[in-house]
Predict the structure of Glutaredoxin.
Amino acid sequence: MTPELKEKIDQLVEDNKILVFIKGTKLMPQCGFSNNVVQILNSLGVPFEAVNVLADDEIRQGIKEYSNWQTFPQVYIDGEFIGGSDIMIELYQQGELQQKVEVALAS
Ligand SMILES: N[C@@H](CCC(=O)N[C@@H](CS)C(=O)NCC(=O)O)C(=O)O
Ligand code: FES
């Protein structure tokens, strides 16, 4: 990955307390896995930013290396890589996601 791309991703992660890399947009997710995390975050009613990896192949490939995670969605909360759809569903069901999000938004 180029230093420029790493810097671009660093900036995105830094600027957005809750950031998701998904296929499609918040309003129109293009895959069921991406849709899962969008709906979970919508149901929590928290602000979040979404990057559509289908619209940017450089980011689509680069973020896999950056996160060391090969699939989408990818979720970052407060600069920390959380995981994908399975992990988000699990955290949500355990009530841990609500907690993480509250802590992130309060900081
Ligand atoms: N078990 C994964 C499912 C996600 C998944 O399998 N994503 C695939 C299909 S959308 C993917 O991103 N493949 C890599 C790519 O399309 O670049 C999760 O929990 O997030
Ligand atoms: S785009 Fe086919 S499974 Fe996600």
In short: The first strand starts at residue 18 and ends at 22.
